[in-house]
Amino acid sequence: MVGIVSYGAYIPIYRLSRDTLASVWGKPLGRGERAVASADEDSITLAVEAVVDAMRGFDRATVDGIYLASTTTPYREKQSASIVRAAADFREDIFSADFSNSVRSCTNALTAALHAIKAGEAKRVMVVASDCRLPAPNSDFEPIFGDGSAAFLLGSSDVAVSIDGSFSVSSEFHDVWRKEGDKYHWAWEDRFIKDEGYQKILPQAVQGLFKKFNLTAKDFAKAVFYAPDSRTHAAIAKSLGFDAKTQVQVPLFDSVGDTGTALAPMTLVAALEEAKAGDKILFASYGDGADAYILTVTDNIEKVRDRRGMKGHLASKMDLANYGVYLQMRDIMEWAPDLRPKRRSPFTFVWRDRKMFYALYGQKCRQCSQIQYPKQRVCIYCQARDDFEEIRLSDKQGKLFTYSIDERAREIILPLVRVVVDLEGGGRYYSSLTDRDVDNIEIGMPLEFTFRLVFDGYKEGSGFRNYLWKARPIRC
Amino acid sequence: MAESIRDKVAIIGMGCPAWGERWDADIFDLITEASFAAFDDAGIGPNQIDAAWLGYYVNDFATTGLVLSQTLQLQQIPITRVENGCASGSECIRGAAYGLASKQYDLVLALGYEKLKDTGFGGLVTSGAPGKVYPMYAAEQGAAPGRYAMAATAYFRKYGLSKEEGKRTLAKISVKSHRNGARNPRAHLRREITVEQVMNAPIIAWPLGLFDCCGVTDGAAAAVMCRTEDVRKFAVNHPHDYITIKGFGIAASPGWGKERVDYDFTYWDATEAAAKQAFAQAGITNPRKELSLAEVHDCFSIAELIGVESMGICGYGQGKADVDSGAWEQEGEIPINISGGLKSFGHPIGASGAREVFEFYTQFQNRAEEPSRQLKDVKFGLAHNQGGFPGQFVCGITITGAPDV
Fold first, then answer.
1. Distance of alpha carbon B76 from its chain centroid, rounded?
2. Would you say residue B273 has pLDDT above 80?
3. What ipTM describes this predicted complex?
4. Are β-strands A14-17 and A33-36 bridged in parallel, bridged antiparallel, or unpaired?
5. The domain that contains B68 carries what CATH number?
6. Domain ranges across chain A
């Protein structure tokens, strides 16, 4: 049996309400809100969050491959899955790949992973879908695009959701696209792309699946599929014969938004959070064709319940105060020139200590047992030389020892809360505190780690993107 | 056991022209003004000095010791550029003293300067040197206000001060420094302020507000020095009222104190260590009683509070009681930063250590520019300088005194 062994999801903490957008642009935009990645988040950091969520209770050394699906990996040339792998502390001797250029790349990666497992090339493969699509201001996409990620650990044993069959369609179609150099999305006329695209191509794959496996809509407990908006979603469900009230997994348009590559996977995670053993689920994604799957939930689903997943991350949120904060967070506006000297970030630094930076390894002195970060040659407690074992700190929680709230730091989102964290089991870490509520910072508050961008180099200095684990209040 | 430097070296002339935002002056001007003020005070000329030590921090406008020879047209003499963060000023005096004590030179110049107002923005430029874990980790730790503010937060917590009490205690320190600076014509910020103004000022890095932070200042300070045995030969203008070095303390912390879980941010470890060295050399056992004044590194109000405690001038946690009782005021038990301190006099990084010695020199010679700020019966003065951040400091302490004590 091949299928989903574990799952996880992530939604950024910030939400932008359509009311806020309506007041900026002076036109009604309906109800609801969408999730917005913070200034220090991108598709890579979102992916790491979902992977970490999915790996709760699983040994990270057992993963044989990682496929990252996204239309918004930050590099045009350079793999992003390798960064996610490093941050997730998966082994180096595994296969990593980016799947991109279509919101369907999530299931492209899924099918490729299933093939690898069925062929016996891998026992467990992580498939993570993550998107941070930037809608043009005041465009039709702005109220609807959202940011988020979902991850599935696929394997051939301990399967919580078996994948029993699939059917794919490849179609040449221009609905929404970006060319080389396009910052924002193009789209052909919406009536045409709905009639001939979304509402035809995805049903074509689902009907192909039904026919191939001799099934009908009535055989499924839930249907999970991609659509660009609620109305189209409802129309597709109806055309396939699903009962809107009982069979259709509620789409995320009014709570998270259209998260592109991650939308169908995140919706599936939401469905799995409610699923019972024996449930059959239709799962389909769209983009230059469509992929459709038959999923069956097994008893093992009960073993992977303690995820933050969709429910946890949906409930944990902070509203963006205004559109200006959003413009800064997503780096949409022009900034005033800054006379402060530019910092330069030699990549060799990062590379030499990649385990320390990407996977947040500290070290434990074999002489005095004290845990310390960053890496040292000589113990900062007992001065013993070169006698350490490496210890991963990224999954440890800690308590805030002391802090300051810097109003003038070189940061996009001010003020910058800077904290000293004492970690459970030992060790101390200096960090800026991300996803924080400035009015609720207290000594002793529990904190955890999250993998984030740091603003040092990628817009200035050395031109690459730096990542680091930062502290944040325990999210949920 | 190494020998103490006590009384081996004398300062026979000093210069410290008024500090401030010197839009009109470049580094050549700052160096020229301070060094000639010191030469004139000593009664010597630049061609008489055998060697020089030059302290500055920012490398944007100069590197090496050449900037001193270029400015003063010094001809092929040894010039050593020292840089030890905010302790650079202390370091140039220390280096000069050791050059004399080892009898390599007879008459030397020690000069610290910094030109901070040519960078085009309001804050302090960093030296840009990548540390071990720069940029991924160190850069995240940010600039000085945020780092010192962490110590203030920890201090309030340890001693049970509410945020309001803590801020009020720090405010009183700044009010005192401004009161002193207002009467010092050489100081940068010469306006008296009130506790309420400090409390209500914009926050820079909570809990530190605008008036908890020192000025960003241009300035220089210089000393002409010789061996004490040679004062009859060189100290033509100050044959009797020269001062002598009583002791130095310089300590560089391992720098990971801030990452050790046993460091609580309420003491400056390098200052503790440097003070022990300096007091031992100077033979001072009760600094609170024996010191006539202490110039304490108060880049932030919290730095003065913890700095005074860390040198043992008062006990740990006793700083608030001292502040409340006025013990650090001009009329108090031990005047702290009678000059106005870094807070009010200003803090051109590489110059501050030498400037703090200049304050004792001036007080000892009864040459306070305004009589109201002249201290009486001045015997020992302490100059304290520290660079870095809580848990990661280099500290320089220079104790000077009357020749006959």
1. 30
2. yes
3. 0.90
4. antiparallel
5. 3.40.47.10
6. 3-329, 347-473
Residues A112 and A96: their CA atoms lie apart, in Å, by 12
Domain A3-329 in CATH 3.40.630.30: no
Q: A404 and B153 in contact by Cβ < 8 A?
A: yes
* Residue linked to tokens 């999801």: A9
* Domain endpoint, select from B234, B263, B295: B234
Q: What is the pLDDT of residues B293-324, one digit of tens each?
A: 999 999 999 999 999 999 999 999 999 999 99
**Is B227 found in the same domain as B108?**
yes
Q: Are residues B302 and B199 in the same domain?
A: yes
pTM of the predicted protein model:
0.93
Are B108 and B177 in a shared domain? no
Tokens matching residue B391: 């848990």
Cβ burial of B318 (10 Å; 0-12, 13-18, 19+) is: middle
B209 with B224, same domain?
A: no
Minimal CA separation from B77 to chain A, in Å:
34
Name the active-site residue from B86, B226, B314, B395.
B86
Cβ-defined contact of A405 to B202 (cutoff 8 Å): no
Structure tokens at A112: 């490729």
Give dist(CA A458, CA A453) in Å, integer: 10
Active-site annotation holds for B347: yes
Distance in angstroms (rounded) separating the CA atoms of residues A43 and A293: 25
pLDDT in tens, B74-116: 999 999 999 999 999 999 999 999 999 999 999 999 999 999 9
- B9 SS3 class: strand
Q: Which of residues 152-191 of B touch A (CB under 8 A)?
A: 152-154, 157
- Parent domain of B271: 141-215+244-401
Asked if A467 and A453 count as a contact pair (C-beta separation under 8 A), the reply is yes
| Residue B315 identity | G
Judged by CB atoms closer than 8 Å, whether chains meet at A402 and B151 is answered as: yes
Our answer to whether residue B384 is catalytic in this structure is no
The alpha-carbon gap from B382 to the nearest alpha carbon of chain A, in Å, equals 30
* A195 secondary structure, DSSP code: I
Q: Are B31 and B113 in contact (CB under 8 A)?
A: yes
Kindly list the residues from chain A whose CB atom is less than 8 angstroms away from the CB atom of residue B145.
404, 406, 408
Could you list the mean pLDDT of each consecutive 10-residue stretch along chain A, which spans 476 residues? 97 98 96 96 98 97 98 96 98 98 98 98 98 97 98 98 98 96 96 96 98 98 97 97 96 96 98 98 98 98 96 97 94 82 73 92 97 92 96 97 92 90 95 95 98 71 83 97
CB of B149 closer than 8 Å to CB of B206: yes
Q: Is the dihedral of CA B177, B179, B180, B186 positive or negative?
A: positive
**pLDDT tens across B332-342, in order?**
999 999 999 99
Question: Mutating which of A354, A406, A423, A453 best tests the B interface, going by the most B Cβ atoms within 10 A?
Answer: A406
Q: Tell me whether B303 touches chain A (CB under 8 Å).
A: no
Mean pLDDT, chain B, rounded, equals 94
- Rounded Cα–Cα distance for residues B253 and A284 (Å): 60
**DSSP conformation letters of A398-460:** EEEEEEEEESSSS-SSSSEEEEEEEETTS-EEEEEE-S--GGG--TT-EEEEEEEEE-SSSSS
